[in-house]
Amino acid sequence: MTAHTWSVPETEVVQSIRDHLDGRAGDPEGPPAVLATVVGVEGNAYRRPGAKMLLGADGEGVGAITAGCLEEDLASVAERIRETGTPEVVTYDLMDDDEDVWGLGVGCNGIIDVLLEPLTETYRPAVDAFETGHDVAVATVLDGGDGPLVRGDRAYYRPDDGTLRTPDGDPASDEWPAGLAGPAGDLAGRGRGDTLVFDTDGTTVEVFVDGVAAPTDLVVFGTGHDVGPVTELAANNDFRVTVVGFRGAVDLAERFPAADRTVTTAPGRLADEVRLDDRTHAVVMTHNFVDDRIVVEALLDAGVAYVGLMGPRERFEEMLEAFADEGRQFSESELAPLYTPVGLDLGGGSPYQIAHSIVAEVLAVSNDRDPGHLKEREGPIHERVDVGDDGGNGGNDGAGDGVDADAPTQ
Amino acid sequence: MTAHTWSVPETEVVQSIRDHLDGRAGDPEGPPAVLATVVGVEGNAYRRPGAKMLLGADGEGVGAITAGCLEEDLASVAERIRETGTPEVVTYDLMDDDEDVWGLGVGCNGIIDVLLEPLTETYRPAVDAFETGHDVAVATVLDGGDGPLVRGDRAYYRPDDGTLRTPDGDPASDEWPAGLAGPAGDLAGRGRGDTLVFDTDGTTVEVFVDGVAAPTDLVVFGTGHDVGPVTELAANNDFRVTVVGFRGAVDLAERFPAADRTVTTAPGRLADEVRLDDRTHAVVMTHNFVDDRIVVEALLDAGVAYVGLMGPRERFEEMLEAFADEGRQFSESELAPLYTPVGLDLGGGSPYQIAHSIVAEVLAVSNDRDPGHLKEREGPIHERVDVGDDGGNGGNDGAGDGVDADAPTQ
């Protein structure tokens, strides 16, 4: 396992799962890959519930679920699962004093529960949702108690239509807890995972609900050299990036390999080529005043979530004057999604530093955060996910990462 | 020229200059590489004065000085400079309406002055300063007027000893303007460039003063997989990164190829192996409570500029209790450089997103910035560098990048 394994974006883990399902990775005739998912965390185990690692039969792993604390041990458990074909929940109690037990010299605190299961077609709807861009919650039974559900049974909740379905797309049976929908919808939208416990019909059912939020779309307008680092950093931060060039811009896919999609079109025909809606985030950096103006108008008209416009404030004031000359006025609320100069105030001046500050801003806005120092944030660092009386163990409770997305904005 | 060319960190441009000077790049017997430096900017030309590009005789370029606006044209000017051996200052007037003149479909606004010169040993002290870690200002004559100085004459100002020296290390002659030292010291410390005009002895001398600030040291403590993306992002953002591992950690250089240096030592022997002073920035992520505690104490005792400590706030409170048990108390001012949880509040939870937020914080602190949105910053976006009566044209005045490091903190 290399450092690279740990730094892969989440989107690459999903892509690897898809490759395995499609028979493009591993040996299609051989034993299945094993999917390991963090389903519970107490203490300093670093990754959140929902963090995933795919363990191929060839020993290759994609993703990581701790900072190297138990990935090697997981490989041997995966071997067993491949033989039995039966999902397991393995609990690791990582004590600070036992730091060298796992042989990597990396101390790891806390208790972590990991679900390991053979990767099968029952996971495909999650991959498809990620691809098509809708949120979904994957409900997986960890413990069926005395009831009919057994470990590994799976259903999908889609908040957009309020349905709970089997992996085949049929309505899920009544055996699934009725109280699942509410917290599942919440977790799906936030892309968080949590283990929920339901007491129904005299038995206790434990379900891990894994919110798979669709990746956020980032559209980058421009084809200059400065577009490269923005595209690369955004893709690594799990944005689905589209680069848009004008006037017959060529070789965009080759020049911006990190982009999921490249489009060459005319400024006036944007809406035909690129989906612009209230989930769209956009960075405008064509370095052409007229192009920028047409794009900004189209984005604001479409009510996108975020427009970062490169250039000094005076340039945008000129742009507003040009709009006014055409009789176009923007209200304060129409201008709210517009950020110019683009980026956080990090003080860097190199192209890479500017790209870093731009992507940091897009991250903060897309996560609805006030991008101050975490140390200055008020309120508790840990906050429980409220799942009513079902007794969820708290989406991020105890996860020791420094960046806790569950706490409130300052 | 590829997107990669544009995204190289500044440190790589310097490394390339060193390689050419040492005969490790290009043809040592052939024509010299040409160094292009932005010496003046008005309007939207994106890079700041001091931005550099090295144009090899083989047509290879490292770095970029605009977003693709005129790099191709520069190559042909460089060809001429190689033949004549004479430095030139070329002015480009890039009008928005003429966006396609440069053949790249990238609109570029404004006027940009570029000094092009054959790369010679006179530039070596700048490279050495970068390497050894002291600030320096490179003073290069753009126009000597009727006096003895001619275009391309060079001297170095070191703010730490207040000397102005020739490239050979001798004291510079009195022909250099006496008023140079003040603004040169200021620009050196901030790593900014500016063209200064001096009226002396009845003639007007124009000097470009290029502040080469030593790269900021970032020491990362830890060897987990999460160290990889932090190291990589920090190096790309021009930090000089040292990774420190404990207890015989091996293969660090191989595992963290982006690090400038890797060290394996014992927590108690830190000070022998790593320079810790008031310029040091450090991220502590060993995931081992005891190691973290020893490192944090050593860093705070050394009075470093920044300590980012990974982990939730409660963990640090535990650490403070452990210190107190040993009779060690920290005052509020001693704790001021400590940031925990580490990172800006960007809301991301993937390892890469966490690394992005950590490096964003280090950037902001090292540049003394309050890391809010640039659009919310009060005060003027553009601010002139005050160089007294010498009439500097303003370090960042008119540079159209979204991230203006000259304006005051909010």
TrEMBL record, chains A, B:
Gene3D superfamilies: NAD(P)-binding Rossmann-like Domain. Residues 218-362 form the XdhC Rossmann domain. Residues 370-387 have a biased composition (Basic and acidic residues). Residues 390-401 have a biased composition (Gly residues). InterPro entries: MoCofactor_Util/Proc (IPR052698), XdhC_CoxI (IPR003777), XdhC_Rossmann_dom (IPR027051). Residues 156-185, 370-410 are annotated as: Disordered. Pfam families: XdhC_C (PF13478), XdhC_CoxI (PF02625). Residues 30-93 form the XdhC- CoxI domain. This is XdhC family protein. It comes from Halobaculum marinum.
